[in-house]
Each structure stands twice: as C-alpha cells, then as structure tokens.
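Input record, target 12 of the design panel.
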C-alpha cells in the first residue's frame, strides 16, 4: 500500500462513499459500488476471483469497510426482525432473506447463546412459549416475503400490514437496545392497531376515513368489521388486544413500564400481527418449525 498515499486513498473513498449514501445505497450494497470506483481512481483493475489473490488496495478497502460499518449493517439483512422473550430477557429473532429452496435452522435465527439456550430448555413450558413466539416472527416474515403458502394483502390493506411490521420492528429495536421501554410499548400499540385495521380493510373494505371514524385508536371497535370473516379468530385477537394500554392515554401518561410489563405488551402486539398474517394466508409455522413438548 506504500505506493498509494493513505490520505489520497481516504479522500477518494470518502468521495465515492458519500455519493453512494446520497444515492440511497444501503450499507451492505456500498462496498461493491465504491471499491471499484476507488480502484479506478488509482489505475487498479478491480478483479475478484477465487483463483487470484486480491490487489492490496482492494484488501485495504474491504478492511476499511469492516471497521467503519457495524456487522449488522454489512449483513444481508432480514425480511423481518421480531423478538422472543424468556423471563424478562428479549432475544432478537431474524427471519432472513432467502432465495430458491433452502433449509432454515430455527436456532440460527435467534440471537441466543448456548448457556441461555440450555437454561431455557430446562423449563419445557417456558421453552414452548418461547418457540411459539419464534413461530409468530416466522409467520410475519413469511407473509412479508410471500414464502411457501404465505401471502399478504394487496393495496391499502397491504400498506397497513407493512406499516404494522415496521412499527413492530421499532418496538423490538427499543426493547433489545436496553432503552427505557415506554417507546417500545407505544410502538407496539401502534403496530397492533395498524395490523387490526389491515384486517378490517381486508374483510370490510374500509377506507382511511372510515377507519378513523369507526375505529380510531379503539382497537376493540374493529370487532364488527372483522368477526364476519371465518378466517379471522376474533376471540384470539381480543385475548391479545386486552393487554394493550389505550394508545392516546399511554402517549401522555408518565407511567413507566417494567421489563415484564413491557414484554406482555410487545409480545401481544407481535401475536396480533402473526394471527392476522396466518389468518389471511391460511398457513402457520406452528407445528411446522416447532412441535411443542407438552
């Protein structure tokens, strides 16, 4: 690398990296876009081959990316990131992007170490509950990706479903980030509300004005717009909705949430989305990826 002044290499890198950011390229996409441009600036041929050692400049730039970007940002990403809980601990569950036919190892999708996993398996009922939450994440992810027998609504209902998943991911990020959990709870409530409204649009073809006037933030008021469709089990939805604080009141209430209280709301919201995903698709990951021990 001595023939390439480090300050000049860095200057070229920053120019192309910032241009890629401005163009909207994701972190994981940028190295393949930026490195060839930097190489061109220095007259280096960009060649990646299993039979040829990469040029030192290429190796240097790849090393630079590994240092300035988080590993999570450099990865392939996920269709959906949810959560499973044991006691008051939150474990990220990642439904990965996949192409073609592949074998999915459930354990590989959970950010849990061997000691935590062994502890969990010592308590069969808690292990079953944990794995059912993992299956909920899979139902949501499979619906978003339209994998196998899963699908998601079209049009406005689909927009609401995707929004509900995004708010759910925000709740998960706040919970696993060990921040104060008020924001996680609020995001989870919004996620559940949007999911229920998506189902109401599917069943009763409501528009935005009707959703606002007929349901608003009163999630339980959606019952009459959903329960007429046999695909949707309103009693199962209602069992989760009752765990939700009222959205507007929670927004202004200074009350804080313990980890176990937040867990109840977050897992219930995720369950609402999973129930709607499974109901619309007519498919579920339960008993497919996991058979309960009891």
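The sequence produced for target 12 reads:
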């Amino acid at each position: 690398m001595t023939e390439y002044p480090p300050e000049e290499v860095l200057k070229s890198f920053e120019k192309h990296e910032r241009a890629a950011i401005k163009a909207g390229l994701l972190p994981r996409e940028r190295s393949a876009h930026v490195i060839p441009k930097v190489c061109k600036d220095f007259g280096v041929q960009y060649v990646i081959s299993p039979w040829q050692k990469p040029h030192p400049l290429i190796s240097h730039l790849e090393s630079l990316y590994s240092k300035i970007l988080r590993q999570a940002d450099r990865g392939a990403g996920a269709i959906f990131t949810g959560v499973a809980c044991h006691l008051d601990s939150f474990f990220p569950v990642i439904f990965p992007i996949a192409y073609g036919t592949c074998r999915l190892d459930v354990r590989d999708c959970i950010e849990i170490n061997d000691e935590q996993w062994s502890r969990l398996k010592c308590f069969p009922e808690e292990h079953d509950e944990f794995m059912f939450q993992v299956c909920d994440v899979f139902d949501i992810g499979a619906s978003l990706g339209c994998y196998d027998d899963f699908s998601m609504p079209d049009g406005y209902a689909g927009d609401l479903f995707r929004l509900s998943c995004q708010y759910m991911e925000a709740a998960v990020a706040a919970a696993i980030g060990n921040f104060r959990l008020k924001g996680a709870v609020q995001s989870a409530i919004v996620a559940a509300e949007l999911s229920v409204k998506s189902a109401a649009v599917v069943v009763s073809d409501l528009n935005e004005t009707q959703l606002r006037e007929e349901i608003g933030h009163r999630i339980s008021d959606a019952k009459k717009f959903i329960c007429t469709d046999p695909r949707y089990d309103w009693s199962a939805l209602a069992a989760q909705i009752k765990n939700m604080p009222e959205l507007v009141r929670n927004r202004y209430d200074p009350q804080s949430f313990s980890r176990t209280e937040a867990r109840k709301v977050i897992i219930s919201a995720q369950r609402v989305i999973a129930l709607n995903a499974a109901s619309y698709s007519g498919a579920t990951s339960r008993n497919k990826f996991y058979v309960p021990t009891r």
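The radius of gyration is 23 Å.
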